[in-house]
Structures are given as structure tokens and as C-alpha cells.
Amino acid sequence: MNYKTIIVLPAYNAEKTLSKTIRAIPKGIANEIILVDDGSNDKTLRIAQKLGLTFYKHPSNQGYGANQKSCYKIALDHQADIVVMLHPDYQYDPHLIPHLVDFIKDNYFDIMLGSRIRTRQEALAGGMPVYKYYANRILTLLQNLATGQNLGEWHTGMRAYSRKVLKTIPFETFSNDFIFDTQMLLAAVKKNFRIGDIPVPVRYFPESSSINLSRSIRYGILTLWETFKYLLL
After folding, report:
1. What average pLDDT does the segment 123-143 reach?
2. Residue 100's pLDDT is what?
3. Buried (b) or exposed (e) across 60-77, using 16+ Cβ within 10 A?
4. What is the pLDDT of residues 180-221, one digit of tens each?
5. What is the pLDDT of residues 40-96, one digit of tens each?
6. How far is CA 97 from the centre of its chain?
7. Helix intervals (H) in the chain
8. How far apart are CA 159 and CA 58, in angstroms?
């Protein structure tokens, strides 16, 4: 069976890293690369056009979750069988995309994640802030216990979904903010989809996207709330 693979890039002010990210994507792995710009005020769209990407633009900044919603709706409209979500900030290594795709193609999993947490030493050496590392570990542990999963990380921004997952999960009803990712996985567990993961290198640098401390605290609280709701419903 021939699978149509589409890579989606939820972009916001990604002019400094977009070209580098695209160059690192293995040739022939994707049938199409789609960028959705969430109201950037830099040259992201101009660079996307030069790179020959399919691109769409939100008229204003709507949020990370809203950006992903557009990415997935467009990919499904373009008849994707597998949708890979990759941040265009070069924080996640695109060379590993074929491994995510193959696990879904070979029907081992419905969702594949790239986990940045293989060892504490590697995560911190890659630039992950100490408070984010420990928050990630605690939240992931609690979410694994709540759901019966054994994922290396619940908070990665490198994911691959089968078409069936995106057609089944009501992602359009989820948050427009960063908690969208957690809602996606909790809904997938509820629907008994198979979730796998592989380790990916950690790369934090000035141009990579990252939420600040106050938003991180808010994200952590919302994550706990969403996990609590999962247990109740």
C-alpha cells in the first residue's frame, strides 16, 4: 500500500531556522510539506515561498493549538495517510522522521512521538532548562500512571499521526494554546490508539521556540487539570 505522508510545520516567526529545518528533512520521505503561519511578523512566509512549500497564513496570531488545527485540517483535505508535525525551529531533528513514519506504515502504532528524554545528562547537555526537565519528568510520570502508558515524554513537539487518528479525535474542539498537545494524547488513549516513541536529541538554542517560566507554570497546572479530567470522565 502506498501511504501519502505530509509534513506540517506550525510556524511563528521562524525565519532564522526554517531553511535549516527544511534542508534537514530526508529527501523523498514526504509527498508534501505544508507550513501554516500563525500571524508572523518576520519573513517566514517569504522564505516558505522560496523553498517551494505549500503555505497558509492566519490573519492574526491564534495560538499554537489553533495552528496545529489548521495544519491537520489542511493535511486531511490533501488526503494525507500519515501526518508528521515538525516544529520549524530546528529543535527536533528531521532526520528521524522516517523512523516515525515507518512504525505507522508497518502498523505497529497509530501515533509516534519523538522523546527528548533518554537520559537526564543528555537532556541537560542539550540545553533543556533544569526546571523544564524536572517538570517534564514529574508530569510525564503522573500522566503515565493515570493512563497506563509508558511514554518517555508526553510533551514533545515532534509527532506523527495516522489519518484514522486525526479523523477520529475531535481535535477542533481542543484548546488553541499549548495544552492542545496533551489533549490530543489523552483523547488518543481514550480511543485506545497505540502510541509509540523513539528517542530524539535535545536541541535548545536562542532561535528555538520555548515558553517562558510563567507560561510553563500555567501549562503545568493545565496539564494536571486535563489529566484529572481524564480520570473522571
Report:
1. 93
2. 98
3. eebbbbbbbbbbbebbee
4. 999 999 999 999 999 999 999 988 877 666 677 888 899 999
5. 999 999 999 999 999 999 999 999 999 999 999 999 999 999 999 999 999 999 999
6. 12
7. 18-23, 44-50, 64-77, 97-105, 120-125, 130-147, 163-168, 180-190, 213-232
8. 22
| The one-letter amino acid at 204 | Y
Tell me which of 3.30.70.100, 3.30.365.10, 3.30.470.10, 3.90.550.10 is the CATH number of domain 5-232: 3.90.550.10
Q: Quick one: CA torsion of 17, 88, 23, 35, rounded to 10 degrees?
A: -120
Lookup: cell for 48: 516558505
Read off φ and ψ for residue 23, nearest 5 degrees.
-60, -25
Query: CB neighbours of 48 closer than 8 A, spacing ≥ 6?
Result: 11, 18, 35, 37, 55
